[in-house]
Design a protein that fits this description.
There is one protein chain. By secondary structure, the protein is α+β, with helices and mostly antiparallel strands. It has 4 domains: 34 residues; 212 residues, Thrombin, subunit H, CATH 2.40.10; 102 residues, Roll (Pdz3 Domain); 89 residues, Roll (Pdz3 Domain). The strands form 5 sheets. Strands 14, 15, 16, 17, 18, 19 and 21 form a 7-stranded antiparallel beta sheet that branches. The protein has a 6-stranded antiparallel barrel with strand order 1-2-3-6-5-4. β5 and β6 form a beta hairpin. The longest helix is centred in the first third of the chain and has 19 residues. The N and C termini lie far apart (93 Å).
């Protein structure tokens, strides 16, 4: 005997009707099919399930946006800066052509002019009468005068607390006894692509402007050499950002600050929906250290990048994959050299945190405390090696120290041969980059040189090149190179 399937179908119809009603904002009763009584038991009529109408949903969105604006606008300020530029007055025609007259030892006359600038900032902390404002380093620059204007119209003269050019952040402070709203800082690690985002600032001088969009991407990194700070990743948003928004807030649907607006990608100079903000989690430490010390202390490892690990390079180095940071050169007397890191090594992990690429390495090392020993996992010649490295403090001097060997090499592929017109040149390894001030630059090695031998040993691939330069303890290494149909011997001293 076949069972009656009608009750099951009715339940499915009811469930389908409920889902469609919820999606379209219609009454649940409209979609539920009429069911005949299957029992003589008397039951009370079911209460209809009410769902939000379209108007109610739209009003809920509007109320949410209003709450964001009411929360975020008061904690974002306008920052006006003035640079006082001093220049020498144009000399007289006689001085221009013939120089100062004999006995004319007066100081040259100077004049000054005021160059204004505009940006935004976020009220992030209060200590007594002091109120701290976070903004971009490029907003304050070398300003001689800084004025902070609050959302309610109050204006205060501010002073610089400190700057962090590595992450394009700065902190200024002003004093007041009045109540001032302080921003709630969110967790930028919790952001997801598609989340609502609001940019708050003073674009083109239009004070207290808020624009809406979404989080378009996270973990964005600027292209090398474009002048954008690379010691951080960026949040990408399509919320409109223009000049004057720099230093302002990127906030979430709760009104929490999750980023500091920093730059836009645009050919016209105006917003095209490609805005970028510094994650607020990257700024929290900066705030603390600028208040405590007036500067931010970063860790320094002492290596130069060997370049992106392409498939060809991974094959030449006998790597199983292209994950990790490739060490091209090691600075002398650096933490890396003292710990035993060598050119050609691949750093894959630091203190249990995986390293995907060079930018990962930079950001992780920068946040390591100087003087603290960290565990590094290294891939060398298809072997995994664990090293303990005691990080040093990053200074201007550490960045100009000499590194060995001072140049990078890559596999000589057909594409590179074509680009450098090296079709008839034999060899497997070519110089891709030479670092200024290093031994290679001083010795005359150039980009595009083919490395044929190290000492008396032939170089078969990139892995062999690094094996040869690392196993030789000589103070001087002789490289046989090919350049434009000719061979040269170049000796480099460590």
């Amino acid at each position: 005997m076949q069972s009656d399937k009608r009750p099951i179908r009715r339940v499915l119809w009811a469930a389908t009707g409920f889902v469609l009603a919820a999606m379209l904002g219609l009454s649940f009763e409209f979609f539920v099919p009429r069911v005949e009584a299957q029992s003589t038991v008397t039951t009370r009529p079911a209460t209809p399930i009410e769902t939000a109408t379209t108007d109610e949903i739209m009003m809920a969105y509007q109320e949410s946006f209003r709450r964001v604006a009411q929360t975020a606008l008061p904690v974002v300020v306008k920052i006006d800066v003035v640079d006082v530029i001093r220049q020498q007055v144009n000399p007289s025609p006689f001085q221009f052509f013939f120089g100062p007259r004999p006995g004319d030892d007066k100081e040259p006359e100077t004049t000054e002019y005021r160059r204004p600038g505009l940006g935004s900032g976020v009220l992030v902390r209060r200590a007594g009468n002091k109120v701290y404002v976070l903004t971009n380093e490029h907003v304050v620059g070398e300003a001689d005068e800084i004025t902070v204007s609050l959302h309610d119209g109050q204006m205060f003269e501010a002073t610089l607390v400190g700057k962090d050019p590595n992450r394009d952040l700065a902190l200024v402070v002003f004093e007041t006894r009045d109540d001032v709203p302080i921003a709630r800082l969110g967790d930028s690690d919790e952001l997801h692509v598609g989340d609502w985002a609001f940019a708050v600032g003073n674009p083109l001088g239009y004070e207290s402007t808020i624009t809406a969009g979404i989080i378009s991407a996270v973990g964005r990194r600027p292209a090398p050499g474009n002048g954008i700070s690379g010691l951080t990743d960026y949040i990408q948003t399509d919320a409109a950002i223009n000049q004057g928004n720099s230093g302002g807030a990127l906030v979430n649907l709760k009104g929490e600050v999750v980023g500091i607006n920093a730059w836009i990608a645009s050919q016209s100079g105006g917003s095209v929906g490609l805005g970028f903000a510094i994650p607020i989690n990257n700024a929290k430490r900066v705030i603390d250290e600028l208040i405590a010390y007036g500067e931010v202390e970063y860790g320094w490892l002492g290596i130069r990048s060997g370049g992106t690990i392409t498939d060809e390079l991974a094959d030449s180095l006998n790597l199983r994959n292209s994950r990790g940071a490739f060490v091209g050169s090691v600075f002398e007397d650096s933490p890396a050299e003292r710990a035993g890191i060598l050119p050609g090594d691949i750093i894959t992990e630091i203190d249990g945190e995986l390293i995907d690429d060079w930018n990962d390495l930079l950001n992780i090392v920068a946040d390591l405390s100087p003087g603290r020993a960290s565990s590094f996992e290294i891939t060398r010649e298809d072997r995994s090696i664990d090293l303990r490295v005691r990080i040093s403090r990053r200074t201007d001097e550490t960045q100009v120290a000499q590194s060995w060997p001072g140049f990078n090499v890559v596999p000589l592929t057909d594409e590179i041969r074509e680009g450098l017109s090296l079709r008839n040149e034999s060899g497997k390894v070519v110089v891709s980059e030479v670092f200024a001030g290093g031994p290679a630059a001083a010795g005359g090695i150039r980009q595009g040189d083919i490395i044929r031998r190290v000492g008396n040993e032939a170089v078969g691939d990139v892995a062999e090149f690094y094996e040869l330069i690392n196993e030789r303890s000589d103070e001087e290494l002789v490289f046989r190179i090919a350049r434009q149909g000719r061979e040269f011997l170049i000796g480099l001293v460590r």
